[in-house]
Amino acid sequence: MFARLLVRLLRGSRGRLIVALVALISGATVISALLNLDLDIERKLAQEFSTLGANVVIAPGQTMQTKDAGTAAPSLMDQAIVLSALKQVGSADVVAAAPYLYIVARSAGTPVVIAGTWLDETPKLDPTWKLDGEWIASREDQTQCLVGRDVAKQFHLKQGSEISLEYQRRSAKLDVAAVVDAGGTADSQVFVNLPVAQNLATLGGEIALVQLSVTGNAAAVGDFAARLAQALPQFQVRPIRQVTEAEGELLGRIRLLIVSMALLILALTALCVLATMAALAMERRMDVGLMKALGGSISRVVGLFLAEVGVLGAAGGLIGCIAGLALSRWMGERVFGAAIAARWEIFPLTIALMILVALAGAFPLRLLGRVKPAVILRGE
Fold first, then answer.
1. Domains identified in the chain, total number
2. CA–CA distance, 290 with 285 (Å, rounded to integer)
3. Cβ–Cβ < 8 Å for 317, 355
4. Are residues 268 and 314 both part of a single domain?
5. pLDDT in tens, 239-284
6. What pLDDT was estimated at residue 73?
7. Are residues 228 and 300 in the same domain?
């Protein structure tokens, strides 16, 4: 009997119930989209910030004095020790890692900065670089190099040109594989594979620093840097604070915005349901009076109406959640260029929230308990 009455109630007053259902679906759509975005935003931000390049640096821990007592040069690191520690610590979150050795050589009598590194790792560390030419795919290639835009302009170089480098009576002739447009200091450098720079400087197995790109939030990057520092106590291992702190600050602001928007949407949805239910309560005074006159208890009558509202909340939450997942996918593609992964735990959470909002908005139905059958039957 209770189920039959509930069905009859849902069929009656369709216009007002549809208004309440539309409000619940709209609120559920936005809420589920925001919740799904919040659950996946940290991973997306980590991916976006990884495109900014290296966020962890390994550097020498001290300086060494040169023959000229008035100057000091940076000490170098043993490449084998550093790479062994990296292998020992290991992490699936390390996107790329590359050692660097910098020297100032000469080309046609003009000083030029040489950066020796693993050129096959460079696209992962600096994905924003624009190349006029091709990447060098092998770190063992000692016949080709990449030149910065400013260097290419200064020496009139282009893809396929040859550049001659001289350093401490050693020389190397390399073919230009590509011209780099990085929009920074890289534009004034020549990039060669690490063995080329080490041979020119007669520094076999020595490097100046190591750059790493590590995915994860600021805490994860800091934890990785701490573990690596324990494995390399003689060197400096530090995250690049500007990148990690910016990521954490942006994540906090986005989550604050999401929570604020969710609370606002819940409040507006509850107010819309409240207005609809207030009008519905006035329409059903006759029905309630008749039920009470026939012996129906007030708890059963109010329970019937609350069950009706609960069904509306569950239906609105389910339909809105499906639409919200599609909305969050669209938002992810527009903002991050990749779809936000659907999190199925959003369904029970959204449906529960919409049922609570619907019940909160159904407060005017409690006024039906004050209806007096005698007054209703007299037509007052």
1. 2
2. 9
3. yes
4. yes
5. 875 555 555 666 677 778 888 888 888 888 888 888 877 777 666 6
6. 47
7. no
Residues 127 and 261 in one domain: no
Cβ distance 353 to 266 under 8 Å? yes
CA torsion angle 41 47 52 56 (round to 10):
100
pLDDT for position 289: 62
CA pair distance 61, 75, nearest whole angstrom: 8
CA-closest candidate to residue 341, choices 353, 331, 349, 350: 331
User: Does residue 73 share a domain with residue 92?
Assistant: yes
Q: Do both 118 and 260 map to the same domain?
A: no
Domain containing residue 286? 2-48+248-377
Residue 176 pairs in a beta bridge with 145
For 302, residues 6+ apart whose C-beta sits below 8 A from its C-beta are: 365, 366, 368, 369
pLDDT at residue 244, rounded to an integer: 53
**Count of CB atoms situated within 10 Å of the CB of 31:** 26
> Alpha-carbon distance 236 to 74, whole Å?
13
Amino acid occupying residue 162: E
Residue 108 lies in a domain: yes
Is 135 part of a structural domain of the chain? yes
CA distance 176 to 166: 16
**One domain for residues 294 and 193:** no
Are 364 and 338 in contact by the 8 Å Cβ rule? The answer is no
Write down the pTM of the prediction: 0.56
Neighbours of 123 (CB within 10 A): 14
Residues 265 and 281 in one domain: yes
Q: Which two tokens stand for residue 114?
A: 């040489």
Q: What is the pLDDT of residues 31-74, one digit of tens each?
A: 888 888 777 766 665 555 555 567 788 988 754 444 444 444 45
| Calpha distance 209→82 (Å, rounded) | 9
Task: Write down the residue that tokens 């550093």 correspond to.
Answer: 82
* Residue of 185, 195, 189, 190 whose CA lies nearest to 175: 190
Q: Output the pLDDT for position 338.
A: 61
Residues 150-175: pLDDT tens digits? 999 999 999 999 999 999 889 999 99
Considering the domain architecture, whether residues 264 and 230 belong to the same structural domain is answered as no
Assigned token pair, 263:
């609370």
> Which of 185, 205, 238 is the last residue before a domain boundary?
238
